[in-house]
Task: structure prediction
Amino acid sequence: MLTKKVTITNETGLHARPASEFVKTAKQFKSEISVSLVDKKVNAKSLIHLLTLGADQGATIEIHADGTDEEAAIEALIKSLNSGTDK
Result:
């Protein structure tokens, strides 16, 4: 299992559009992927679950991946979060 911490930098946090892109990216990988914020951990391949985190700007989330492509998955998900999908 691989875990990385990432701080949400866009103004509106992990709202619908960036969350949708994040889920779309997560679904491309075979690894089991989850995201946690404080004491809540959710399936990263479910938009509804991801939105329940309520990750606002400045929140530090942890991305967890477990599987054969876990490293590539985490890298792609961090890139997705930092790609400017904050509109």
About this structure: The beta strands are 2-7, 32-37, 40-43, 60-66.
